[in-house]
Sequence to fold (203 residues):
Amino acid sequence: MADSPAAKALRDSRIFPIFEGSNDVLRSFVALAGLKTVADEVADLRGLNLADPIDGIGVLADYVGHRVRRRLRPDRLDTAHPTLTRHSDRVTEQVGQLRATAEKLLRIHGSDIQNQQRQQKRLTHAAIDIYAQIATISRTTALFNDQGVEASGQERSIATSFCGCAATRVAEQFNRVDDNDDTQTHAVARLTYNRGGYTPRLP
Fold:
């Protein structure tokens, strides 16, 4: 019984909430590190108190902040191979939009952005896909420079497909910043909490 698929699935299911909780925490760290970087650089946002949730993470926060600053602020990906210009230009636009979106959310929510986990999640998912595109373009460029474009046809197709899908996901995250059901979801959650749970009415 202990080795049956059902028993294994039951054992494994216990760890999933822990893993997902860790992912949520890390998403918040990434988002807040990036938001703090923007707040520190915009004159009228420097007074926001975003230091506590960042400084409390220590080395991890320093690492995340460094990666955000180093990877998500290129003015242009000039080192990309010419055949990948369309993708690199699109990434450059996404980086600018990410920064503009972060600044907009800071102006709307102020220090309360620390409690806006859904918006943090959207920013983080966008940043992850932007970072992944940069890594893909960088690796594919290295292959092109080493082997030539014709000899790397499969890699070119993979890079084109991935960057296209990632760009679509990034655009969707940005759209959801303004077009979402967060207010309704929060209202349902508060109502369910106040009632002590939710019991569906059966016909």
In short: The radius of gyration is 21 Å. The chain is about 75% helix and 0% strand. Residues 52-73 have pLDDT under 50 and may be disordered.
